[in-house]
Amino acid sequence: xxxxxxxxxxxxxxxxxxxxxxxxxxxxxxxxxxxxxxxxxxxxxxxxxxxxxxxxxxxxxxxxxxxxxxxxxxxxxxxxxxxxxxxxxxxxxxxxxxxxxxxxxxxxxxxxxxxxxxxxxxxxxxxxxxxxxxxxxxxxxxxxxxxxxxxxxxxxxx
Length: 158
Description:
Low-confidence stretches: none
Strand order of the largest sheet: 1-4-3-2-5-6
Structural class: alpha/beta
Radius of gyration: 15 Å
């Protein structure tokens, strides 16, 4: 089995890891055009626990969030790129706008979010899942000026 796994597989993998005393951290995102901000964020996420799981928005999910012209890269291309990173142990794709259903199934020890959030400003559904499952949240600083949107805008004007 590679790093790209199904939702059912990741739940079983995480349960097995936790039974063996390993800690698991999740994070989520579109990771459309991977840039240094993504890489640094994922490296810091990996530092939080023994095993890191990236919950990746599917193409349909990205369209719901970012609009019809996104994503630039397909979900399988984005997943393959993430799987190539040493700081990512597993990638699992989800179709919903929010990772809450999958997060509720995985029940990681930790979950990371960008530091533009606080526990109070997380979407209510996400905060409820985190509190219900006693998941520790770590907020990670972004690299200023690095985003997929800014990369796309720069490309439009070059």
